[in-house]
Amino acid sequence: MGVSWTTEQQQVIDLRNRNILVSAAAGSGKTAVLVERIVKIITDKNHPVDIDHLLIVTFTNAAAAEMRERIGNAIEKALDEQPGDEHLLRQLTLIHNAQITTIDSFCLYVVRNHFHEIDLEPNFRIGDEGELKLLREDVLGKVLEQNYEEPSEAFSDFVEGYASGRTDAALNEMILQLYEFSRSYPWPEKWLDSFVGAYRIETREELDRAEWLAPLTENIRFVLKDCEQLLKQALAVTQQDDGPDMYEKAVRSDLEKYEGLSKLTSFCELSGALSDIKYDRLASSRGFEGDPDKLELVKSLREQAKDVVKKLCKQYFFCSPEMMIEQLERTEPMLEEVVRLTKQFADEFAAAKRRKNLVDFHDVEHFALQILVDEETEKAKKTAEEFRDTFEEIMIDEYQDSNEVQETLLRSISREERGENNIFMVGDVKQSIYRFRLARPELFMKKYDSYSLEESTTQRIDLHKNFRSREEVLTCTNDIFYKIMARSLGNVEYDAEAALYPGASYPAMPVQENPAGEKAAEDEKVSGKQINGFTPEILLADSNDELLEDTDFSDKKTLEAKMVAEKIRHLMKTQPVTDKATGELRMARYSDIVILLRSLSGWADSLVEVLNGNGIPAHTVSSTGYFSTVEVQTVLSMLRLLDNPRQDIPMAAVLRSPMAGLTDEELAVLRLEDGSVPFHEAVLELAEGLYEEDGQKEISNPEADQKQGKNADEKPENHIESTAHRKLLKFYKKYRQLRQLVPDTPIHELIEIILCETGYGHYVAAMPAGNRRTANLNMLLEKAAAYEKTSYKGLFHFVRYIDELQKYDVDFGEADMVGENEDVVRIMSIHKSKGLEFPIVIVSGMGKNFNKQDTRSKMVLHPELGIGLDYMDGKKRIKSPTIAKKAIAKQIDLENLGEELRVLYVALTRAKEKLILIGTLKDAPEKLEFFRQQAALYAHSSDTTAIPYLTRESAAGYLDWILPAVLSYGDKYPVRIVEAAELVLDEVENQLEQNENLTERIVEIEAADTQLVGQLKQRFSQRYPYQTDILRKNKYSVSELKHRAMREKFEAEQEETVPAFLEEPVTPTIPLFIQRQGIVEQEAQNKAQDAGQEAESKAEQKIESNTANRGALRGTAVHRVMECYDFTSEKSVQEQMDAMEKEEKITADMRTLVKERIVADFVSSETGKRMALAQRMGALYREKPFVMGFTEEELENYGFGADSNTDSCENIYEKTDSDQEKEEQKRIRHEEDLTLIQGIIDVFWIEKDGIVLLDYKTDRVQQAKELIDRYETQLKLYADVLERVFGARKLKVKEILIYSFSLEKLITL
Q1: CA of 929: how far to CAs of 76, 125, 480, 497, 926, in Å?
Q2: pTM recorded for the entire structure
Q3: DSSP assigned state of 1109
């Protein structure tokens, strides 16, 4: 049976050869219609189009993948009906390469294929977000430093005025904010320049004509018009029979003044009139016998109007127009300076990214724009013409979220300039909620207003029907938005054309006795009126209720969470929903419910805690909060300490953590050791002293001494001190050894070693929510591995990398451990829910105030109105907001309110069957009564007429819109205040119920069949016999083996100590992972000494930040030079290295790291001459990779033991496996399994009597023995590989050589 399309949907599918804007309401099936249109286009009998000749742009990668899958399924379905159709078969092949993509991916496609047109290197890469933040910070620092060195007068004044205290962080924020904002426009530099001179105003007339002032003037006139209506209502009340007629004269006088104000059209006229306004005094009400409520109402309405005018005067008419003009004139140089600095930063940042061959997503868009459009003429280039020829139609999904750059890009490859309209746009401006990403819904509205609903080359089609929600949900949504969304606020007129109409069919609510009893029945009644089970509800709580004091519900978030919990418990007993599979009603499950929040921060955790505490499984995936988790913070503190121990907070954090295990009292003891120096200094000095004493005398163990009867008379404070010293010494030993690994260990490996050697990884796994905490640490390992691929290296830069991510709020959500099909209540942000649907939606946090921080900074930005700055006089320390800033900030505030309206619309339209709005209010009964009175004033208006502009414009939160809107419909929608006593009583009942359930479970457990319990234990204790092979790696690089060997040496040096968090006064249990013994202490000390010397050497060298890991880079550079060096050439070393750099075989940085003399000495040596002879004979081989299989036994012979993963797995099951079983498994692995080893041999050559193997080393060492100890095993493995490779020729390795460039010496093994 085919799909039945509505008339409007059929139009969307069928119409061709025109620009089409589809205004698709929530749940209107726009994706299905879009897919059907695409299928119809590619299967058109008369004019078939290949799928790769369509450009289909979606908002997210997930949407693009879903679209591709849907189209593929539709093509396959068409093939079932027309098997063998060649055109359809071709489409099935072409769909994999079709341009069904995001705008970012399409831009990247353009740049990858046309990089040469803008002189871009083809091997560019998209920079990591944290890497780009670091680079941005570095470049901005250099830009400001350049200006500080040679400051202009304007720069000095700018710094003096806008820098805060002793830091210029505020300047950084202003420049970066302006830079980021400008990047959302096609030509950022032109956009910036267009606002220079905006403050050059000399007269009142010029001030009135200023573009940035017009919206403010219009807003003031709207507000005054509403004040006029308030006074008209007051006048009408005074004229009623029982009204206060003695007030009529004063009210009429006020009304005449306001009518005169509303006729003024210029800002300066309004300034003079409002400044001079005077009010008549109300006549005495003594002896009034009419309605006292009406008396108070007239006074209240008059006071409201007067308060509004007073507020307007304070905000916008704070000084004369002449003084405003003077402030603007003095601020103009500051505006020019911030624009100049932003442009300078943009140029320097672009150059820095070019040097590193990095791009960000803004760059990709602008590079694509440069390729397609000429900046001077803004006409399409030849490349754009090629795309025009390729794409028959351009389809843009979620068009309401486009910005100016994307609009310019897509129009450049359309055929509009040729007179052919081929752009298809679909979206819903009411769901444009990405203004914070600089989306411009105004682009949608411009076409919405200009496109015709009739047959036209630019046609608009509205899809009104909603196929998602029940009629009750849609009616409530419509009723609310009729009242609060209009052109004056929200830029959308919510009328019959914009409203939602039901298109889905749902089973009716059965008429039956409520099974939950009287309480549930009472909940179904509001104001004595029985309500439908699917009628939307509004629940409020009074956060100021006296009963809540000194209870867990005194916090608003906890109070609201408790309301949500009680509502969910009620829903689980009474609320039916429609089963998706059967189409019939069933009782609600937890997975049917979603809780939506405007922002998860601070609210989601409270909800999860309270819901879980009430026996309701709840889950949230936060997009923030990752860096604030205790496990991540602890590891980061340890990394900071390893990078630089002279930091108080990281030092205290690590010592207090399970890594060191000191208590608060013990930390206090350490602090008191020397109060005259910083904490870190006192701790380091004490630790070093204890370390030196450790070799001379034993630090006492209080527990052991106590067992032996020692220290019986020791004072408690001495006991605490000795314990603190012992723990500190133990940690300090471990810390010193870890710090030795820092210079040569990749960050992710270093973190793994920290987790293993301190036991912190196991501790975290044993904590509550251990799986998630472990996943968080694994995420940190992934971030560290990703960091290693950036242009920054070393621990110092990694710590800085993380700090920058935190500084700029680049956070990550905690690891998600819950699957899609689990029966839990989900908590998510409204933004996250966009595009999704749920049977039951609870929108919480409705009483929370809107965030208006972006209009309170020193600089505000608007795409059309420009840049608003405070007037700052740094010398006189005077600060005052300019009228330009006030006007721009007000427009931003209004647009933000419009965004909040659209966010609310998205939240309400997620519900399929039941919608519940929950919020807290201070003094809720009084506020609710006030809103009822307000609603009564405009009760005479129609159901689709918006409430007054003043009410909508002054809203501080969602309830300020929702309550006046729903109350204007009388008792149509239930609004209930949940009493505090009810919540407290419910809490007691829930606790009793849980105790009863627990008792029942215990009885059931005790009565269980013992035989059955035994069988279950046996089944659950069974273990997969080859578990070790699951964790076993099958491929290693030689470097990995080398690092593993280093770790094993490190472990071998450890004392048999217990992690601090496991220390108890009883016999300690030593963790298995530190039980290994070793006898290579001298080698480790030598290695530590080398690492320390190398670190000191690096610290002494003044090098750029991108060459921090100089030792590794020097090694790479030497190997590359020796690989490219021609031993047979007559050219000098200098000439050959010059040629390498010119031919880009080596970089300039590599060239500076390699000394020509040491290369020349090697080339002229006897070994160099042997290599030259071998090269002439064609027998010299350099940088040769290999992959070779080895048995585990062979690897153990080379000193590389079994995989540590395997070891740990064997240890886990040590108690359950017999020694015979383990030996059998090990034998099977040795005989059957090969581990692949990959590596690269530096150089070898073949002489008559065998192979000579040589390895270059740049390690800074004192003696040749150190290199032999480090690399003998590795080189013997290389020799084994070569003998296997050349086994057919019966060649053996006759010499194994190391050449140390540090010692300038050849070493023979």
Answers
A1: 61, 60, 19, 33, 5
A2: 0.73
A3: S
